[in-house]
Amino acid sequence: MPRKAAVLMVVGLLVAACGQPAVHYGQGELRQLTCSTDQFGTRSCGGLIAAPAGLTDSIHLDKSRVVAGSTVKGTLIVTNASGHSINLLYRGCRPSYGIALTNGTIIARPAVAASCRSAPLVLNRGETKLSMYMITTYGSCTSGPPSAKVPQCAANGNIPPLPSGRYLAVLDGLDLALPPAQPVPVTLVNRGE
Question: How far apart are the C-alpha atoms of 108 and 31, rounded to whole Å?
Fold first, then answer.
């Protein structure tokens, strides 16, 4: 695989069914978001784990009609109505988060930091705004024969854009104790449309 494609693997392409009732995602068009249980028995769907009481959140994107292959700025607005500050550190590590795109077949997930950062992620009472980005490419590509999940790399080694069409933008993370945000409809178009 060309080095540029390897460097650009910032999202994981994932198609899987939850198989059992999900804590968060897992129904309808979101059924592909993977649900798993870690060695401590914590259930996670789409990287989200059970949230403390009093938290709600919503995704806001700069655009909802996007040229496939581009990056879109977004904001996660978390409202803390618990009456006290909440630190989202999980087992001493700061959770990672981002925006995933799904169309019922494909899930393009954001890259999440696998290394443990101990910096706090404190949600004070009221609103906290967290900047995020949504990318609109596949998670990886191959220089060999393509498959339904992994397309052929572009001639220049770049990862190709997702197909045009309707998608849902959803909150995704790693050990992120937030409720699932309401999915946001996104339309991907080809350049020139």
Answer: 14
C-alpha span between 14 and 106 (Å, rounded): 7
Number of other CB atoms surrounding residue 77 within 10 Å? 14
CATH of domain 3-189: 2.60.40.3880
Closest CA to 105 of 1, 178, 14, 11: 14
Round to whole Å and give the CA distance between 52 and 87: 10
- Give residue-wise pLDDT tens across range 86-125: 999 888 889 888 898 888 778 787 776 667 888 889 999 9
Residue 92 contacts residue 47 (beta carbons within 8 Å):
no
Dmax of the chain from CA atoms? 55
Query: Which whole number is the average pLDDT over 63-73?
Result: 94
Domain coordinates in residue numbering, the chain: 3-189
| Bridge partners, 128 (sequence order) | 78
Euclidean distance between CA atoms 183 and 110, whole angstroms: 15
Alpha helices in 1-148 (DSSP H): 3-7
Cα 40 from chain centroid (whole Å): 23
- Enumerate the β-bridge partners of residue 188: 66, 165
